[in-house]
DNA sequence: CGTCTACTTGACACGCATCAAAATTGGTGG
DNA sequence: CCACCAATTTTGATGCGTGTCAAGTAGACG
């Protein structure tokens, strides 16, 4: 039984520069966001980890500090893949998360479970690339809500989804995940709230009021719906 | 020795709808682009392939026809990964390409070479996600040129790079890869030409005149440059 | 209660999409 | 080789979505 790590919030760090626009003057010394624990960065560790509870994000940075979150991991997901001993991405935990290292026997990429995880992550990345390159701001935010509600929704004691979930990401994290700015994310969320798609009193506690309309707003890839047209 | 497939251009198909904007009226019956051979689409085949020569692209589609090319494969790359028997992405060859199927013995994802390819692809996807979400149009186009010149440049007989390469992608493909429109791609390319970064007389034959300035225009991830700042 | 940070909201600007049309390239048949 | 048509690429004019800048509000924590 592997030991379980419990990571907690790190002390505040200077703000980072994001946004989509050209090189900003900013070039901060600390690259991770506030309230985060940096698990490793660009090739420091050699173990694979499993998320037990909470939320871990993978990210990349440009030289001037612009950040892209490439994946959001919920319970069960593995991370820490390396190429030639260097980690593929930077990983951070959001608020409190429990992670456990995989045993040495499982560290090999030829392990079927690990290979399967690689393919899953790759598939998710493809879908996310489509979101980043081809979706509008509204579609992006709606997609994120659908995705996060699936990852983190708590089922009631009767087993039915409550459609209320804890948003582990800040608005800035969402922006860095979706290729937007904090302001645009905030505007979309509040518009959805006005339109009755979602509700939130606390900014981190989301409730989906109209899942169908939300999913329609999110847009779909053809594969996801199974539709494939041929002449 | 596995047989080698030679794929050629397919007959013309109706145009597809791309662009980043909301649902377009368009919803065409044929989903692949012109002059392309569709290798498989959303879960039709079970073999892994290796690109021997030419260029293969992986793509995804949204319901209304918007397309995102998620990766561009040059010689040596593998593709055709599946999850539960369904292909992760749609693959198409551009113009003429030679591909060969991997032997049955190699089909297992636990094969080290296959696992390594998965990680390589995943790493490339992360870098591309950063491009899609956080780079400007100029940075995107410059990055694409740098990347394609590495994939397809022909070394002279003395072994020195000639920095001239065949652009397998059309402007529309580039746009779908970079999350832009055809017009923006064309404008960037011609601006780079005016500024002396690149040159091309034929639209498909690119020559890099100033690799350093081009790479500077492309921007870098911190990992790529090896730079990592800590407090 | 004061301070700090995250979040929200408004006014404005600009990069890139959109729309339109001309120029170039590619292919086919005479 | 040239004429002709379709597709691609280029170029210009214009508009919109989203980024930028700025100010205000709300929670969290001492």
CATH topology of the largest domain in chain A: Jelly Rolls
Strand content of chain A: 25-35%
CATH architecture of the largest domain in chain A: Sandwich
Largest interface: A-B, 68 and 69 residues
First CA to last CA of chain A: what distance? 55 Å
**According to CATH, what is the class of the largest domain in chain A?**
Mainly Beta
Radius of gyration of chain A: 18 Å
Number of helices of chain A: 6
Poorly predicted spans of chain A: 8-16, 20-36, 224-231
Mean pLDDT of chain A: 79
Name the helix and strand elements of chain A from N-terminus to C-terminus, one letter apiece. EEEEEEEEHHEEHHEEHH
- The secondary-structure class of chain A comes to alpha+beta
Short characterization:
Chain A is an alpha+beta fold. Chain A has 6 helices and 12 strands. Chain A folds into 2 domains: 134 residues, Jelly Rolls (Sandwich); 95 residues, Winged helix-like DNA-binding domain superfamily/Winged helix DNA-binding domain (Arc Repressor Mutant, subunit A).
Outline the structure in words.
2 copies of one chain form a homodimer. With 231 residues, the first copy, chain A, is α+β, with helices and mostly antiparallel strands. Chain A folds into 2 domains: 134 residues, Jelly Rolls (Sandwich), CATH 2.60.120.10; 95 residues, Arc Repressor Mutant, subunit A (Orthogonal Bundle). Helices cover 31% and strands 26% of the residues of chain A. Chain A contains 6 helices and 12 strands. In chain A, the strands form 3 sheets. In chain A, strands 1, 2, 3, 4, 5 and 8 form a 6-stranded antiparallel sheet that branches. The longest helix of chain A has 23 residues. The termini of chain A are far apart. The C terminus of chain A is likely disordered. At the A-B interface, strand 3, strand 4, strand 6, helix 1 and helix 6 of A face strand 3, strand 4, strand 6, helix 1 and helix 6 of B. Chain B binds a DNA duplex (30 and 30 nucleotides) through helix 4.
């Amino acid at each position: 039984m592997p030991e379980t790590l419990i990571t907690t919030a790190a002390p505040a760090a200077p703000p980072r520069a994001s946004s989509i626009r050209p090189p900003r003057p900013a070039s901060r010394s600390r690259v991770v966001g506030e309230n985060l624990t940096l698990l490793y960065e660009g090739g420091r560790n050699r173990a694979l980890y499993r998320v037990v509870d909470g939320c871990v994000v993978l990210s990349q940075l440009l030289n001037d500090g612009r950040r892209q979150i490439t994946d959001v991991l919920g319970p069960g997901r593995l991370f820490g893949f390396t190429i030639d001993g260097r980690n593929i991405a930077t990983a951070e935990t959001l608020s409190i998360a429990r992670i456990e290292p995989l045993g040495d026997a499982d560290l090999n990429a030829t392990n079927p479970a690990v290979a399967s995880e690689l393919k899953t992550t790759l598939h998710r990345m493809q879908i996310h690339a489509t979101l980043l390159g081809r979706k509008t701001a509204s579609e992006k935010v709606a997609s994120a809500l659908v995705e996060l509600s699936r990852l983190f929704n708590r089922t009631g004691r009767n087993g039915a989804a409550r459609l209320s979930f804890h948003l582990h990401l800040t608005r800035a994290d969402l922006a860095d995940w979706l290729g937007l700015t904090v302001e645009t994310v905030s505007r979309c969320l509040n518009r959805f709230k006005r339109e009755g798609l979602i509700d939130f009193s606390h900014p981190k506690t989301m409730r989906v009021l109209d899942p169908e309309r939300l999913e329609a707003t999110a847009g779909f890839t053809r594969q996801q719906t199974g539709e494939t047209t041929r002449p």
